[in-house]
Amino acid sequence: MSVLSNEQKLQIQQSREASASTRRIVSSGLEEILYEAMPVLDHGFVRVIDYMGDDAAVVQAARVSYGRGTRQVSEDRGLINYLLRHWHTTPFEMAEIKLHVKMPIFVARQWIRHRMANVNEYSARYSILDREFYIPAPEQLAAQSVQNRQGRGNVVGPVEAERILELLKEDSQRSYDHYLDMLNHDETGKPIDENRQGLARELARMNLSLNFYTQWYWKTDLHNLMNFLRLRADTHAQYEIRVYADVILDVLKRWVPLTYEAFREHRLDAATFSGEGVKALRRMLSGEKVEHSDTAMSKREWDEFMSILAKR
Amino acid sequence: MSVLSNEQKLQIQQSREASASTRRIVSSGLEEILYEAMPVLDHGFVRVIDYMGDDAAVVQAARVSYGRGTRQVSEDRGLINYLLRHWHTTPFEMAEIKLHVKMPIFVARQWIRHRMANVNEYSARYSILDREFYIPAPEQLAAQSVQNRQGRGNVVGPVEAERILELLKEDSQRSYDHYLDMLNHDETGKPIDENRQGLARELARMNLSLNFYTQWYWKTDLHNLMNFLRLRADTHAQYEIRVYADVILDVLKRWVPLTYEAFREHRLDAATFSGEGVKALRRMLSGEKVEHSDTAMSKREWDEFMSILAKR
Amino acid sequence: MSVLSNEQKLQIQQSREASASTRRIVSSGLEEILYEAMPVLDHGFVRVIDYMGDDAAVVQAARVSYGRGTRQVSEDRGLINYLLRHWHTTPFEMAEIKLHVKMPIFVARQWIRHRMANVNEYSARYSILDREFYIPAPEQLAAQSVQNRQGRGNVVGPVEAERILELLKEDSQRSYDHYLDMLNHDETGKPIDENRQGLARELARMNLSLNFYTQWYWKTDLHNLMNFLRLRADTHAQYEIRVYADVILDVLKRWVPLTYEAFREHRLDAATFSGEGVKALRRMLSGEKVEHSDTAMSKREWDEFMSILAKR
Amino acid sequence: MSVLSNEQKLQIQQSREASASTRRIVSSGLEEILYEAMPVLDHGFVRVIDYMGDDAAVVQAARVSYGRGTRQVSEDRGLINYLLRHWHTTPFEMAEIKLHVKMPIFVARQWIRHRMANVNEYSARYSILDREFYIPAPEQLAAQSVQNRQGRGNVVGPVEAERILELLKEDSQRSYDHYLDMLNHDETGKPIDENRQGLARELARMNLSLNFYTQWYWKTDLHNLMNFLRLRADTHAQYEIRVYADVILDVLKRWVPLTYEAFREHRLDAATFSGEGVKALRRMLSGEKVEHSDTAMSKREWDEFMSILAKR
């Protein structure tokens, strides 16, 4: 299953081969992978198209510097940790990244809710979409969660899985066939019937289902990228967007290794305890045995609290 | 074709019957229609849920006033016209409106691009969508425009229209049938088969097509509402979002009649001429006969220029 | 020391006396104090000018409801707690508040950094500012902190305090005298010298110092208001902005009591521990004695960590 | 009068001398001037610190391209003109620029109102400001405008100018002397008196006047940069911010020559006529003689209308 056409591969290769001299901050970690398509799901990808700055840009801005702004790595690391821990967010807004992303429409619909970003999407009013739709791997076909109204539970059995995949595939193929039919447009781009006019693209697209792929250029700053990752690389996020967040986490690591480290430590691996949680903690540390009924937490909050303390 | 269930009608009626006293600015024009569903397309609507301020809030803020801030209507009108004409946008940000909107997903996807708004969408991860999808009226089934890659041309013939509507309806019905099937959920909300688990809602939804209806609460300020209307009540906007904009234009007129008037005059009915356009105008006014070849405008810009001057 | 002129008091009183009927959600807690000036610092205030929604608007939006959306108070409280704890921020964006604030310019300069708000400031290009400047109370005259490069330490001695206050007062008075002089404008608004033209207001204002008072209309949604309060009602915030945040915290309590409660519990009284912090906690809870040297925390982070656990 | 210290000059020189290879789009026009301080007013400057993309990034995003996205210059120019003319703003959000700006505080206060930007300002809570304040050139000392409540009229006479400049200089010097005094900090950075503590920096700064210089890192995208320039390079903008906008206009020309051209043509040199204005135009073009009294325009709007048509 190939994500890219030969022409697309050639365009990417040509972009990668071009090179020029710059006085700007250069991230060697990102230069290595620039323009390359990192595959996600069955037809999707993430490509880094451009970036501005790296860890150095964060400390340079924090110091409102006339020069490079960086000092010893240990000093820069300390500053970045301090800024992140104390929610000094503006220096992280001083680095920027631009991605080309291809993803199913229902993923794009979640993604777009992060408003602090610039987006230019491929227009299905203007162009014809490809026959590309997302079909989950069987191990991703989970039942509705019983505990969580908004999540997945156990994987469905193999018979049910097969039936579901069959329905998804057939409906997707048919809706695309009919999309082309309405457009009066065959697979090679020619009219099916010279005497028909073909429906306007902006109308025909409504027959496509939400698993069809769309693509866009997406640009955001490092602060807002971390907000996105904090929510979308989380276990509560839907699997199909989480896999994109995971790929972008790797991009983050290459781009801004010090910020990535601080982000892991102070956001991803961090835990927030409510006022009641902190009180319970203090009592526990003083040797008291604390039960749920000794606190004012809801059952759900108590369970979350205890699971954080138990994890290893 | 009924847009609302009886229960929904009752809830709306109850909301409309409640009433309380307030010291705030009250817009009598909006109070009249508050909570009512104004139908759009075949299953959609716009409902005004809440608002803050009206024309008076604009002038009050412009004057950073300790009191109501309003004076004579003629003075307020003059101020509002001046503010709008000179792009003093911040006073218009001081009035706010909240709408409940139901619209096809492909319309929602255009709408959400207006980032300066607050949105809370009905979640298909959490809930099950209704069997409601948009089927265009036959007179809306237009062919792809020949001049404009992003628009509609002539209406397609009746035979083709019938065929297209048939495809749209069948595919929509089938995709919804299969959606329920995957969920293991019959039309009354019961499991189809007690032994099947049913696919997670966040997955099953991907089988629905872009003409299915979604709904959200959408809140924005008067300045950004006018930006939305300027772009979406425009003839270049897709018909299916324009009809929503047209309904909201009427809401605007009820809510802020002075601002509405100024908006019509200085935005909707206004025309912008480029530097070259202004030069051509001056030559024409001095009696010169100006042709396209006498200017540096592109053919397309020239045609747009001439059509503005010719309109009546 | 009176904050308001008699004319301003009259305007406020007239606004408070007007009353009308509305179908909208009404917050009785806010109606009581609507338009009233709550004094802050020596010449400043906060006034609530308008609002949209209250706790009910949050749950109504979260449920994308056709009616009021509220249920039992206990159910609404549970939902609001859940939303806040899990960073579901969009329902909180559905309530809005508008304040009239008067504050020293250096406070306004910190405040404006919260970009997700609408602001209309009194223009010193257009109008003449009053002779109103902030002089700290002697007990607020603190020395530079030794630990914290960005904060206050001990209160300065009475002799030094007197000297400082003298300098501040004299310089403020003189800069205002010269401001009027440049404008050729006496205290009653008449020209000082009929033969002089008077400097443009947009220029003369530059002679005023940063403790002069400015004022604006400021409007934001409940989510962003809580962001503002989390940062500005914090002990790390400068005292002169914190007193405004404290007054607004009281407004929050009146306006949205359930959200206020959840905000206290899950933001103000909550504590976030880093990955290393959580690991240390687990070891401590299992009975181990943990020292700073047993962890990878910086000394500063360790001190913050221990002080949270010690507080009572 | 030197804007930069020798150490600052050295830091800039070192930044300029460093160079590395990149696969990204490189703007040769910006590389030439990267990091250099372009002087503005008596102590201010604009420095380009970093950028992402150029004209090519606009067309690349508009085409959601896999490669460079650019074609013939004439095709790219046509596309950029089309996008700008029709308010397709998202492709212009795909290029980004970061500036280091030093400006008087009253200029910073206008500048910050452009919210769609990232800002990190030099902190006077944390650091001590330099003895640098803006004193207008005598030819900039204009009287209050008679027509326009928010603007300048004629230059004041030489005697009055001298008096005003004297006041400004003396007050600025004195307020800085007292600032240092309160801080217990002499010009070389040593304590004035070992027995005094020195006031906290966050308090002492309030004695400085609005003509003192501050500085920040400011980052925005090309679309929002053009919004800034449209308002601030305009004749209605205050001179002291307009000179910054003028320098940035030159930066724009170097960076994105095609966009600059289109921006001049369709924004700076363009004119917008209201509905009434367009009607009057049509009558004039058909040979009719139109007076103000024949239209529904206000006197002020009519004057603006006629002055556009008269300009050459």
TrEMBL record, chains A, B, C, D:
It catalyses: dUMP + (6R)-5,10-methylene-5,6,7,8-tetrahydrofolate + NADPH + H(+) = dTMP + (6S)-5,6,7,8-tetrahydrofolate + NADP(+). One of its GO terms (molecular function) is thymidylate synthase (FAD) activity. Its cofactor is FAD. FAD binds at T90, R113, H114, R115, E121, D221, L222, H223, N227. The active site is at R232 (involved in ionization of n3 of dump, leading to its activation). GO terms for biological process: methylation. Its EC number is 2.1.1.148. Pathway: Pyrimidine metabolism; dTTP biosynthesis. Keywords: FAD, Flavoprotein, Methyltransferase, NADP, Nucleotide biosynthesis, Plasmid, Transferase. It holds the Pfam family Thy1. It comes from the Bacteria. Binds 4 FAD per tetramer. Each FAD binding site is formed by three monomers. DUMP binds at Q110, W111, I112, R113, E121, Y122, S123, A124, R125, R205, R232. It is an enzyme of class 2 (transferase). Belongs to the thymidylate synthase ThyX family. Homotetramer. HAMAP family: ThyX. NCBIfam families: thyX. Catalyzes the reductive methylation of 2'-deoxyuridine-5'-monophosphate (dUMP) to 2'-deoxythymidine-5'-monophosphate (dTMP) while utilizing 5,10-methylenetetrahydrofolate (mTHF) as the methyl donor, and NADPH and FADH(2) as the reductant. This is Flavin-dependent thymidylate synthase. It comes from Rhizobium ruizarguesonis. The lineage of its organism: Bacteria, Pseudomonadati, Pseudomonadota, Alphaproteobacteria, Hyphomicrobiales.
